[in-house]
Structures are given as structure tokens and as C-alpha cells.
């Protein structure tokens, strides 16, 4: 009991420190970043990045000379784009650290003039410098339900900061496989897949609870947002998502059981009517044209089950192809040809992680007959 209380106390202290913004001291813009950049070091770099962003001064950061920078999956020079329009750091900050790969991902709120937005930020450290900076922005009107203002005043749930006991921790590959099963079940959702949800699973999208929230669309013919994660997927309601491609899992926190994924959702506009598994027919004519959502989605996984999902994602041009690469579960010859260059040039650790995830996902998929 004493040991249990000590663990719980440590978790609570870590969560309080995280939410209070207490991070490691800033790293000199001249670098180098410590070679053993731990969680506090990575979180400190992320907060330092936000301060530099508001100061409109990338020289305050230890970027490599050839740092790769994207906004909405568009490659641009560091210092361009949001570096010129950011005006203040918002109140919501939720970071996920991968000390093994020296990467960090954060979902935060930011101010752009008079407007609030949600930003997804991923940084990668190599050889004492930041070599990758990937950002996405959800602005009001960017598609789908949102609650940016409410999100800004909220705090991440303590469950995200809970440490998984070492003997119960899943491996990196197992965590990625579980996260990938979410996308495998969502793509062309028919209600017949294997969905690894815990009973208490809950999801937030762009600051809005889109599960277990019956008051979001109380008068809808089919109130999907009032359902649990499992009920939604088993209903077949998400059949409008026709392809999920450019899947990547760059940040994995084995200690806390968290997986950060970057993917692209395609909705090709042809699924305008869905026959649900309960026999009900649902009109989906609002999805009558090709559209795409650029997605950052983070999963809290315990004992192989997804307990929390935090997602942000703006609507962008149809069938956007990320310059960061990635894969899908499509196994056609066309898919293999499209991804041959990625297989040959992608970072080896990313390739291995995705292959392990694909293999595990296939092993967990129900067999015909």
C-alpha cells in the first residue's frame, strides 16, 4: 500500500508540474541539446519553441542548418507562415515525449491576433539540434465540431500522466499496433472489425467531446456523438472515411502508454447513404464531395485497450499526400508502387515500426471462414 501511494503521488506531482508549465531550463540557441535529452528536456524545448514562435524569432531555437519545417504538410522555410502571425501562447498544453527517439509532440492552444486556434507540434532532435518541426493548425471554421475556447480553459485528464508499471508495459511495436487497429477499424467502417476499446474510452476532437456526449447533437436522427467509442465503431457510422493513408507513429511513450499518430483521412464523397448495423438508414449527403482531414491523433493505451483519444485536424485539399511519408493498409499493386520510394528512403526506425504495426494489425484481424 505504501509503495502504491508513493507511485500515485509521483504521478500526481508529474501531472501538476506538467499542467503548471514547469519545464526544464531553456537550451541555448547555439546548442547543443544534451545527448541524453529526457522528458523534462524535451518538454522544455517544446515550451521554448512556443516562446520563440510568439517572439517571431527562430534564432532563439537550436535548429539544425537544414531543419525540415512544415505547416499543414507544406514544406516551407523556418520563420515563415505562423512564425509571422502568432501573437500569444494559449492556456492548454499537452505534450507527449519519446525519449528513445528524442521526439516530442504537443497539442496546444495559440492566439493569432484576436483568434484562438489549436496547434499540433512535433519536434525531432538529432545530434544536439532540432532537425524536424512539423506543425498543424485548426482554426475556427476548419470543418467538424469544435470547442476551441472551452479547450483553451481545460486541462488534460490526469489519466494521460499515469505511469504504467514496468511489468505491465507494452512494447513500442505493440502500442503502435493497437493504435493502427483504430485506423484499420475506422477506414471503410462496417461495424464488423476488431476494435480495441476499453469500456471507459472517450475521445476529444478539436476540443469537443465526440463520444459520450448526448447533448452535442440531441436531435440528430442517429446521435452518434452520444455513444461510446465501441458503439460508434460497431454501428458502421464512419463508413464515410474511405481511406486513411500516410500513417505515421513518430512519438511513442512506453512509460505512459501513449502513441502519437499523424495520418490523412480521405472522404471521397461517394458514401452519401449508410445502412447501419442496427438496420437504420442514415443520410450522409453533407459528405457529397471529396474532402480530406489532416489528423494528429493521440491514444492512451492500457492493457492493449484504448482508453482516451485526443485528436485535432483541419480540413484540407482532397487526397493530400504528406511530405513526411507514411503508409496505409492498402495492399494493391498500385499502393505498393506508390510507396516503393518511401520504403527505400524513409527513416529505418519508422519503417520498422510501421511494418511491426501492420503485421500485428493483420494478426488481430478476423479471418474469413
Description:
There is one protein chain. The chain is of the alpha+beta class. It folds into two domains: 2-139, Nuclear Transport Factor 2, Chain: A (Roll), CATH 3.10.450.50; 164-364, Nuclear Transport Factor 2, Chain: A, CATH 3.10.450.50. Helix content is 25%, strand content 31%. The protein has seven helices and 15 strands. Strands 7, 8, 9, 10, 13, 14 and 15 form a seven-stranded mixed β-sheet that branches. A six-stranded mixed β-sheet has the order 2-1-6-5-4-3. It has a two-stranded antiparallel sheet with strand order 11-12. A hairpin with a 2-residue loop joins strand 13 and strand 14. The longest helix is centred in the first third of the chain and has 18 residues, at 2-19. The chain is globular.
